[in-house]
Write a structure and sequence with these properties.
mainly beta
Length: 125
């Protein structure tokens, strides 16, 4: 069974800036759309600053696939930018078909981990 951490998307106020789930209002909320692999199709909003994808219980997004490491890839938000880091996985991470250890991500990028393929989408928070 797959799981993802619940996200608090209720607006809060931090100083004089409205915040939703750690994002300033109007800031883009990146979402991974799983288009291939066990459990597809489905979407995972990346509202947390760091999100780990893997097959183990330590991952925030768990996908049951023998081709994924327990902690396979880390997605990290820094302001308006999103990056990925391969967590020394056995099968690597492919960004737009090219093996990558770390990279900045953009709208429409495809990320493959094992037999799972994601497409990155950005939408206003």
């Amino acid at each position: 069974m797959s799981k993802s951490e619940p996200f608090d998307l209720e607006p809060t106020v931090a100083g004089d800036v409205s915040v939703v789930g750690g994002l300033a209002l109007g800031e883009k909320l990146p979402t991974l759309e799983q288009v291939r692999g066990p459990g597809a199709p489905r979407r995972f909003p990346l509202a947390a600053v760091e999100t780990v994808v893997g097959r183990g219980q330590q991952a925030h997004v768990t996908i049951e696939s023998a081709l994924l490491s327990r902690r396979h890839v880390l997605f990290r938000r820094h302001g308006p930018e999103l990056s990925l880091v391969d967590l020394d996985s056995a099968n690597g991470v492919f960004l737009n078909g090219v093996k990558a250890h770390a990279a900045l991500l953009h709208e429409g990028d495809t990320i493959q981990v094992g037999d799972v393929v994601f497409v990155l989408h950005e939408a206003p928070a």
